[in-house]
């Protein structure tokens, strides 16, 4: 209960709630077989190692990777992007070369590339957006055709607009020009079937906490041949083959990229979350989210003074809706919704360049997931109408 009202949690794009199955598995790990992995020969260490590696295999199956060795455990999407920028990027992106991004990226898919560009003297090139929140394909073609770009990095689903980008098509075009492609799948893997082989992306990242898993665990997928060429990102225990006083050799992927004691409980919890989502079915989850988003789009769109950002056709977007009401500040809107027990996010959503493109400083964002209902959307809409009366829009 929030402010005497049942909580309507409409902020799953930020982080998802956790099913009891995942919480119980974390408790079971810590109470029954807590041990470090890949080290002990005793029973519970073997059990922990098996559960950790089984989680890796579940992730590989979920996204249809060729092999579990293409799955690297990281802290989240942010760390995955930094890893690729500093390992693959430093080796492959040189002076005057280009990195192609889009104007709808989350800060975590911008800043690591800015850091790399500064280190290497590379250039960032942005694909612009149409007024209704789609990528301008022509911009992309022009950047590619100019040549000299080594990487395209783009979000699969916008965390602000809900736009679903045609990544498969973009990847095909990028590959024709010899560009590698990184897909930020933080907002897609939790909500829809994603097949990395069909997509043919070179890298893909997502976070466990947005898909009913624990915080502090996430995934970097990369094609095996690319991983094998990449130098380590972090140095430390478990990522080495041999250590001498002045030099060392590295293990094969994925262990080369998992230095130190990793988030074992997090990985096992994520494995359990994947079981949970797979039982529901990713296609069913996508349909459920889309139905609710469509309903929310229609109902909110009818409220006087509401402006919704992003694709006008809710069928072409995921379960994320950003809006503003007249000139009411998004933070005031979110506070008023909170009085009614409704949790939404307000602000720039870590996408300031996108806010600039939209010509606003902030929006209110409602996002849905497996546990949300039409009734909660009705409450949101009633509360937005109340805001209209309070703020005299
Ligand atoms: N990429 C996208 C598209 C995201 O939506 C987010 C997080 C990230 C990357 C970073 O993920 P992290 O798990 O490493 O933090 N997005 C949001 C959001 O929209 N509200 O809070 C976090």
Q: Can you walk through the features of this model?
A:
With 393 residues, this protein is of the alpha/beta class. The chain has 2 domains: 8-18 and 281-390, Aspartate Aminotransferase, domain 1, CATH 3.90.1150; 20-279, Type I PLP-dependent aspartate aminotransferase-like (Major domain) (Aspartate Aminotransferase, domain 2). Helices cover 41% and strands 17% of the residues. The protein is built from 13 helices and 15 strands. It has a 7-stranded mixed beta sheet, sandwiched between helices. Helix 6 (167-176) links the parallel strand 5 and strand 6 (180-184). The chain is globular and about 70 Å long. Bound molecules: ligand 7TS. Ligand 7TS binds at residues 13-14, 76-78, 106, 108-109, 155, 159, 184, 186-187, 207, 345, 349-350.
Summarize this, please?
Helix 1 (20-32) runs antiparallel to helix 9 (264-280) and helix 2 crosses helix 9 (264-280).
């Amino acid at each position: 209960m929030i402010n005497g009202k049942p909580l309507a949690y409409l902020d799953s794009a930020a982080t998802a709630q956790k099913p009891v199955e995942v919480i119980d598995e974390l408790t079971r790990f810590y109470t029954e077989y807590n041990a470090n992995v890949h080290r002990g020969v005793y029973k519970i260490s073997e059990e922990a190692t098996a559960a950790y590696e089984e989680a890796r295999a579940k992730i590989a199956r979920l996204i249809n990777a060729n092999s579990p060795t293409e799955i690297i455990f990281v802290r989240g999407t942010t760390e995955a992007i930094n890893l690729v920028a500093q390992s693959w990027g430093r080796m492959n992106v040189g002076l005057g070369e280009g990195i192609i991004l889009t104007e709808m990226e989350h800060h975590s898919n911008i800043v690591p590339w800015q850091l790399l560009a500064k280190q290497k003297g590379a250039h960032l090139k942005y694909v612009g957006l149409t007024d209704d929140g789609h990528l301008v394909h022509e911009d992309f073609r022009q950047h590619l055709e100019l040549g000299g770009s080594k990487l395209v990095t783009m979000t699969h689903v916008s965390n602000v607009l809900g736009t679903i980008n045609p990544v498969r098509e973009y990847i095909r075009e990028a590959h024709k020009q010899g560009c590698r492609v990184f897909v930020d799948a933080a907002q897609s893997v939790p909500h829809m079937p994603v097949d990395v082989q069909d997509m043919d992306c070179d890298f893909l990242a997502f976070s466990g906490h947005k898909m009913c898993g624990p915080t502090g665990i996430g995934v970097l997928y990369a094609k095996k041949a690319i991983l094998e060429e990449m130098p380590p990102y972090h140095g430390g225990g478990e990522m080495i083959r041999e250590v001498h006083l002045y030099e060392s050799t590295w293990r094969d992927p994925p262990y080369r990229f998992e230095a130190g004691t990793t988030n074992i409980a997090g990985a096992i919890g994520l494995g359990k979350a994947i079981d949970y989502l797979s039982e529901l079915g990713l296609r069913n989850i996508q349909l459920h989210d889309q139905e609710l988003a469509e309903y929310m789009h229609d109902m909110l769109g009818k409220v006087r003074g509401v402006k919704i950002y992003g694709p006008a056709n809710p069928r072409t977007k995921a379960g994320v809706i950003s809006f503003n009401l007249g000139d009411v500040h998004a933070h005031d809107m979110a506070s008023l919704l909170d009085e009614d027990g409704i949790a939404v996010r307000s602000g720039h959503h870590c996408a300031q360049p996108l806010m600039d493109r939209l010509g606003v400083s902030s929006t209110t964002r409602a996002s849905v997931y497996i546990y949300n209902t039409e009734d909660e959307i009705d409450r949101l809409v009633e509360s937005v109408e109340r805001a209209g009366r309070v703020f005299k829009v």
